[in-house]
Amino acid sequence: MRRTPARRFVPLLPLALRALRGHKRPSLIAFDHGAGMLKFLTQFFTWWNGQTLGTRFHTWRRGTEVGRDGNGNVYYAGGVDSEGRQRRWVIYNGPSEASAIPPGWHGWIHHRSDVVPSKEDYQPREWQKPHQPNLTGSPAAYRPKGSLLRGEERPRVTGDYDAWTPGN
Hints:
Helix content is 23%, strand content 11%. The chain is an alpha+beta fold.
């Protein structure tokens, strides 16, 4: 009995790079253009850009789209979690940032309400503020007075403080 040689492993990254450069060589995954391949790569290698491949597969298999919010986030429900409740999740439009969920959807996704905000005429309360993105780590982040990252001259030490020196 003659065995056929094992098929060689073809890594995805070189194929993806060829597709991005416009090569016509067939790949394991066919895409129309570079944007589709770039989306695939970000879903394959990162978790902070929308959804991963695992989330995409789970959504395809068990998810039912429930609604969309004004930010372009898509909300899904399907299956049962470990506590016996309906499983709910969101696929973000852009970077995965939990503060990008509006208050009505936040209540639904955390099982505070069973009514989907798109099904009711949800109006935010007067005390609810509009969304502001989390700016931590960006140049627009909050920097308190005296912070080295603020770029200002730090206030001089007053007489109530004595710096420590060795041997004192």
